[in-house]
Amino acid sequence: MQTAQRLRMTADDFLAWEETQVEKHEFVAGEVFAMVGARREHVVVSGNIFAGLKQRLRGKPCHAYMADLKLRIEAVDAFFYPDVVVSCDQNDNKADQYISHPTLIVEVLSDSTAAYDRGGKFVAYRKLESLKEYLIVDIDARRVECFRRMHNNDWLLHDYVGEVDCELNSLGLRLPLTEIFEDIG
């Protein structure tokens, strides 16, 4: 995430302003941040995950969304664009500008966002009571880190590497890592 021209505004002002912008922006506590473009591998892996989830969720009440739908986290006054997000909330699945009750969030790491995706963004995501699993996808290591919320609100890490399936307990499905990293050299 890179800072845009140090704009400060309210969440409502941000929603109205961003509708008129060509580029995407994230919003955190009144500050606006410009989104940078992604490299080809990032887009391919995000697309693979979205396609796998969409196919497996067909006919179920949960829906997968790509990076162009905002996620609102009211508790930290923020709007983010996760790479892939799944919501099983019927209000989210009728939403127009943003969703607020995800079950699963996926972030594909890039050099410029890795520290934030693992740190500050994950701290914000944990404020979402609906969130059950958070995936961090490391393309270079061909690894998926699945952070799963436990009953006591602790987060347990499940590390997936190699030719295994990533288990998504919150959705009752599996995504093979070979499918997630398909078409990556």
The general outline is globular
Bin the strand percentage.
35-45%
Low-confidence segments: none
- What portion of residues is helical? 10-25%
Keywords: Endonuclease, Hydrolase, Nuclease
GO molecular function, one term: endonuclease activity
Protein name: Uma2 family endonuclease
Quick tags:
185 residues, alpha+beta, tt1808, chain A, six-stranded mixed β-sheet
List the topology elements.
Layout: E1 2-8, H1 11-18, E2 25-28, E3 31-34, H2 40-57, E4 63-66, E5 70-73, E6 78-80, E7 84-87, E8 98-99, E9 102-108, H3 114-118, H4 120-125, E10 133-138, E11 143-149, E12 155-161, E13 165-168, E14 173-176, H5 177-180
What does this structure look like?
The structure is a single chain. With 185 residues, the chain is an alpha+beta fold. The protein is built from five helices and 14 strands. The relative contact order is 0.14. Keywords: Endonuclease, Hydrolase, Nuclease. Residues 12-163 form the Putative restriction endonuclease domain. It comes from Methylomonas rapida.
Brief characterization of the structure:
By secondary structure, this protein is of the alpha+beta class. The protein is built from five helices and 14 strands.
